[in-house]
Design brief:
By secondary structure, this protein is an alpha+beta fold. 26% of the residues lie in helices and 33% in strands. Strands 1-2-3-4-5 form a five-stranded antiparallel β-sheet.
Length: 149
């Protein structure tokens, strides 16, 4: 989890003018995420490329918003490992506001991987997995070509 936030922090800082891929993009997602969640993010990225439209994810799931900063990051295990699953919470301040992001973890290939990300917005929980499994209008993965605007 700390690695994902280190990537996000470098991304926000601009990393000395060099672009830094978000944790859910290559090359990071295959290392940080379960195969299934990485596949959902890859499909969303492919849709964006083919359609020229925003995908099903409207914000940075690690920031729980479209914009932000990470101050005073604390990562804690909130559901201890059991049956190959665990829950981790990242808490931090973004623009002076407290933010908490929950991560559902799975043990895969001998390592803990992110299997879902849950953001709370205006008192409601949003699971990234639910957003990424919503239908798309088009895409090569659906055998229905997209027409770019």
């Amino acid at each position: 989890m700390r690695e994902a936030y280190a990537i996000t922090t470098r991304q926000l800082a601009g990393s000395r003018g060099k672009p830094v891929a978000a944790p859910w993009h290559k090359p990071h997602r295959d290392r940080l995420m379960s195969r299934e969640l990485a596949g959902l993010f890859a499909r969303d990225e492919l849709y964006q490329k083919e359609a020229g439209e925003m995908g099903n994810l409207g914000a940075d799931p690690f920031l729980s918003g479209q914009d932000g900063e990470i101050k005073n990051l604390k990562v804690s295990v909130t559901a201890p490992p059991a049956g190959g699953k665990a829950q981790v919470t990242a808490s931090f301040r973004s623009f002076r506001q407290p933010v908490s992001v929950r991560f559902r973890m799975v043990e895969e290939g001998g390592a803990w991987k992110i299997d879902d990300i849950v953001n709370r917005v205006e008192g409601q929980d949003y699971a990234v997995r639910d957003l990424l499994t919503q239908p798309y209008e088009c895409g090569s993965f659906m055998k229905k070509p997209c027409k770019k605007p």
